[in-house]
């Protein structure tokens, strides 16, 4: 056996470490010690000579390294090893007398023995096993187990013995300034998977780790050591193939361990989070990071979002994009939307960089029923109080409402703690729907109503006399929120036009901003490989959402029916909808099965990928002219289409926000002739238009 001892300016340390090796119960002829001197010259040679004099039977060799660095020293030690197996002992540590004999006794074919580690302090106190390396090892002492069950066993270079040939097959990464032992042991495992056997304590096989401040492995916290060097290690691990499940599991555990060190830094320096995220993105490590571990315990901001991921609806997806766009870590309270609500777990990556804790309230999903809203409010506030007891008061609360419960909870937090900053977003008007109808739902005159009404009164605003919930939700945000977000200018104008209190209108204008739904970066449009087949040489258009041949997009249906037979062979409209079977029946009735294909909804990222491959994306305004002077809605799909790189055909209401967007094609709602002309322009732009008939 060869014991490799790297030493950097270790003159004062080597007598202890080498002395412990000289006192081994294993016969001296059974092992050698290779000391690798890898730093400036000091009295290390003299110290080694003194050990030789004191222990003449100890087989001791010296290797000198021209380049400093623990990884380089260990590689040189491996090259010089003459034994059939090797182990490492750091120069600032020592081992118990039965250490080497115990390692050999616990070794076996494909089995790596792992010694427990006891920490030794300078104060003379007894060694303690209370550390991350030994806590789980002691519970499994003597048992053969998989290292993926105790990954910390491989997070420390020493305390193990492996065949020299296996050890030499991998090399320590000399470009890493710390953590090279983690990468090395992963490479060893991936090249020759093994199991481990923790060494039993009664065998006297203990590694004694001296806790010395500012040693290479025990440096003080800093951005460089706690973040940059940890990301260096993660980058190396992530670059490994890890083709086998055990390797992938072990790699994930090692990465998680490195991320825990980054999290420890962020708990002290939470303002560094943005910098950490930027560094992770610059390295392309977004998918490598267990973000919940990175963000654990650091959120100082809160989101109250009635619908949130993994539910696959517009409200949840937009809320996730808002959180990503804002760039601060948040805890989120949302509502359990029911088993019938579709989910899309893959969409969780949208906000993962900025999520700490999430919690789903189990309350019945009813938009304007006071009972379920009270249940949601009470349980959400209880969870927020629990979190604040653990981590301190939140700085801000963000609520996004189509569902009113979000604003109710945020308003109560603001009333009870005025210093919290409330950011309230309206996805659409609460009081009126797309058909000009006034939404209704009456609150009870209970303690919740009275607290909210009193809060409005303190702000100089009267609560709705009819206790109408949609009206209440709007007034609470207008009167109490520090920032109010509208998704388009027409929405703000419309909602304020029916607000009679001019002073309140002025407050909203002062505190509000208009912000369209965020568009995700280009990389999100290519997270999945496209499987949906598209026939080349055609005009491939797509529509995502409810599509009816008899109502809604009638001008598009009529336009497709009006195309010439030759034109129809060149056009395909791919519709992705919730009820493709019914749509197929309608298409057959209208003779459009050769032009329009009905498909079920796809996952969000499959949808984004499809938008990049279509020639044209179809989006339409809601029809509001019969009810409103100005269209207060902007289709949510616009923000997704805007990042696709594909042309967009907008079927618009005159003067709408959608009509002002930079779309390649535009035609008015209810005008089949203009729709036909738009399709023919699309064909012409792609060289697919019919040749003119020169015989006429």
UniProtKB/TrEMBL annotation:
<feature type="domain" description="Glycosyltransferase 2-like">
    <location>
        <begin position="2"/>
        <end position="107"/>
    </location>
</feature>
<dbReference type="InterPro" id="IPR050834">
    <property type="entry name" value="Glycosyltransf_2"/>
</dbReference>
<protein>
    <submittedName>
        <fullName>Glycosyltransferase</fullName>
    </submittedName>
</protein>
<dbReference type="InterPro" id="IPR001173">
    <property type="entry name" value="Glyco_trans_2-like"/>
</dbReference>
<dbReference type="InterPro" id="IPR029044">
    <property type="entry name" value="Nucleotide-diphossugar_trans"/>
</dbReference>
<dbReference type="Pfam" id="PF00535">
    <property type="entry name" value="Glycos_transf_2"/>
</dbReference>
